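Bench notes, afternoon.
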Amino acid sequence: MTFIDRTLGRLSRRVGVLAAAVVTAAASALVAAPPASAATYQYDCRRLVGSGSYANPVALGNVTGRTVVAVDCPPLTSARGNVRRYFSFTLTRPARVNSYAGASFALDSTRRSPVHPSLSRGPYTILHTWAGVWTYNRGVVNGRCLPLGPLPGGGVLPAGAYRLDFQKLDSALNSFSTPWFNVVVSLS
């Protein structure tokens, strides 16, 4: 074997090792970088566990610093037993400023009643619907949210288990039903 053959052999092995290292590093970087959509966990509301009653709330699970959205929740109606729906979730860390929980919806001519949230821990109401903030899209109401940090009395919501209570507060004379809605819990 000539000197040139030996040198080319060593060089090709080194290039091969370097190429393998570059490919491995690139693959690791691709795996380590989560996609932009990983910031939101979205679930079909009708497929979540729980009936939506006080004793058996719909379970949203752990909220770990991401946004959890339960989409396409059936309307609340003025019919007996359908004026409220309960959802449970657990904050794995305290809420920060700009964290919120609430509902997004689209009012229309037949469903003019908004969805009103309140927040409880055990038997105690922490935030009633009066603490809610209306959200708008192009001047039209599209949601009602409760601030989790800062709380109206100061501080932020600590880690722990909570229950969201969504209500239809309007009378049946105004509107028999709310629109379909999405439940949103977002930690910033």
